[in-house]
Fold:
Amino acid sequence: METKNIMIVGVGGQGTLLASKLLGRLLLDKGYDVKVSEVHGMSQRGGSVVTYVRYGDKVYSPIIDKGEADYILSFELLEAARWTEYLKPQGKLITNTQQVNPMPVITGAAAYPQGLVEKMTALGVDVDAIDALALAEQAGSSKAVNIVLMGRLSRYFDIPEAVWQDAIEKSVPAKFLELNHRAFTLGREA
Structure:
């Protein structure tokens, strides 16, 4: 099998690291060679964060270059727009429609760009945009956005839902399992 590439992008504190670990564990359990990169960016300070997950028969490097990502999973809308050049021509961008204001917007030096989904679609990007924050809150916690997005991503894989749910059980503390199972299902079925 040729190597597949998934980028997970967001803002520090949104759970991108848990998402990449969960995805890496799932793919390892399916028998793939998997490389997961370190988190890049200011993960504790609300800065831009990106992780790479690569899997296949044999993966030699954890890095994804521009134009190589089969999927980009974005936890925030501006981050989705920021990383689109890494997507393959037939790649899929799955994004949360949530907007987290970067420092220039907070200070009033810039305005948050409007119409980003429409602009990316006009550029030929295959966008699947959902309000993952609303679904996470429906599941019971705004912190479950990452698992909602994992549920959405799972729709594009030929891996049974039970295998994804098992990876959740291996990745999150027992006291949060019911919440995370609900979040995953809401994202998958949205």
Summary: The chain has one domain: 4-189. The longest strand covers residues 87-96.
